[in-house]
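CORE FACILITY INTAKE
Project code: CF-77B
Contact: R.S. (postdoc)
Sample description: multi-component assembly, two entities in total
Requested service: structural model of the whole complex
Turnaround: standard
Below are the sequence entries exactly as provided by the requester. Do not edit them.
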Amino acid sequence: MASVSYDHVVKRYTPETTVVRDFNVEIRDKEFMVLVGPSGCGKSTALRMLAGLESISEGEIRIGEQVVNGIAAKNRDIAMVFQSYALYPHMSVFDNMAFPLQMKRMAKAEIEQRVKSASGILGLDNFLQRKPRALSGGQRQRVALGRAIVRNPKVFLLDEPLSNLDAKLRGQTRIELQKLHRDLETTFIYVTHDQVEAMTMGDRIAIMNAGILQQVGTPGEIYDHPANLFVAGFIGSPTMNFVPVSAQDGRARAAGFEVVLPKSVSAAKATLGFRPEAVTDRPAESAGSLEMAVDVVERLGSDQFLYGQVAGDNVTARVDPRMTVAAGDKVKLTLDPRSLHLFDTETEKSLL
Amino acid sequence: MPARPPAWTASLRPGYADLLELDWGVSIIDWAGERLVERPAGISRHEVRFVTSAGGVCAVKQLPLEAARREHRLLRLLEDAGGPAVAAVGLVERAGVDPGSELAALVVTRFAEQSFPYRHLLSGPGFGSHRGQLLDAVALLLVELHLLGFYWGDCSLSNVLYRYDADAIETIMVDAETTSAYPALSHGQRGQDIEIMVENVGGEMGDLAAASGIGLDAADLGMGEEIAVRYRALWTELAAEWIVPSGQEYRITERVHRLNELGFEVDEIEAAQHRERDHLHFRVRVGGRGFNSNRLRLLTGLQAGENQARQLLADLAYFTRRQGPAGAGQGPGMGRAVSAVRWRAEALEPVLARITPEHGGRDALQAYCDLLHHRYLVSAAAGRDVGTQAALESWLAQGRPGYRI
């Protein structure tokens, strides 16, 4: 068990190619931290530097109190999960988990203790003498996890571990990993490009773009208080609505509506952000109203999404599924004042 | 009425158009018919079937969309780089299927004919003799991939197919699901790839033992580490920086010859004068492996494995010596080319016509290499060169010794 810290870490392949810039993150002991961002944002490189697979151009990485910059990968006491998924068909579940320890010539009693401990956590106690073919897909996945657990690493590293899995197994394994983290009480660092995975799994999320850390926070903090336009647009599905406005004396004016901002801010050019669920047909209180020309109605049972235009600006609204509306309709909707965001159009930083 | 979207889309390489006749709309698990054939497959988390095609037998693997696109792209990159991997023949994407589903896409690769799985080498009676060849072959494969900038991420014995290559074994990577390409690999990446290989091979040896009713205690769990030792020795030989005293620059040429002997092409030699000016530092930048096979192809048009090519080129030299100078008066370059044509027409083809009437291609060249080895053994026993014809009669009479496929 250990904390991990990145202290002004830089990764540069050539003088012109810097893929991670001044990266600073403190990952707490036992925390589930997710590094998330689009392809090529530097998240996997950041993880690989911690794993010892990439050299560090500048700065320091610590595991616990120890600076690991010069320590070989195999001596960092970390485990990359799912580097090998293969289960061996003729070996029992016990042997499938035990053989890496036996290869290290560990004492039998110690191997038995570690495998039994892992199987207890994974709910595999009753399956230890079975062969993999007698297990379900989810159980097999847990045996593969068991092979990483028996090493007793200080930190588990997971680089897009679900990307090659079938959607159903991916969903199951996502839950398994969360339970596993809770039961093991060990630090997990998880890399993904999928914001849904990040939001559902992480205690905290670090969002990266173009090699630069954009924001670190809990899923709730990031969803409710995005630090900039990139984070606001990256997190959330459907994505946040963005409308160009001018702001003065606590009011923001768009082409087709006007809203009262929660704070008095003035900016000649700004971007108003509001999530689809902030556009509602049943206001408790209202920051302003707008008229939406509906292009598409998407009914999902528990939700109803309207896609359309407000004075030429594209807007998505999540409304009550019982609301009667059809494509071509014009509907009056209101904006929830607690869910408004305002970004400086130049710097893209939050103004609220 | 609006056109319905296609149920699937396929991109296939020329020569494999008849694959379009297969029913790509259903899971390959449900395929039936005479196009299906059995071939050895490794331990895969995905379904794999083998089908015949005009272009040869193909492996079809069913997997989620992004994983399929990624593997297809990596296999094409490997092929472009001259990497030792199966060739990607096509990618099929099923429209309207959840992209995350196992049924979303298929990667089609050409099956490496005359190849076999590692169990064929290790569980047969020849275990002892093949073990060393297997270790060398896997170490060499990993070195080749790393030199080309490919991180495998799942090197194992079962993710490789094997083929006899004269007196050695050739390896072909068959699974690139976890592979990534880089301009160059770091020390840490190579180390990680080796660690993964060591553990995977340990698991495979444990499994092989378990299949025979033997426990982990008696399994050959150290085999992966032996491959790692060979890998490190070979890597040092290929990638090390060398220092030679001034005036001994000929030792650079020696290094190049040594690497050519190992089958590696030398792309570039980087040299720098040492500060004290009495030593020269140099490093050889090694390209793909295929020095001998490329030479043989240029001279004769034959496509052979690297070690087969080494033996065939030696036989070409033997033939030239016995025939005397060919193309006299036409210059040394023309002489070599004429010798190569005569060797193929007068030495190789007549023998192939007799020994492998039912086979062709690499299989036939392997048989010829076995005959060459037999010629050496018979000549050594006789204390004189017996010649190819006498060796051939003896080889056939003795039941084609060494001919293993």
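Facility notes:
- The first helix of chain A runs from residue 43 to 51.
- Chain A touches chain B through 35 residues (CB under 8 Å).
Invoice: internal transfer
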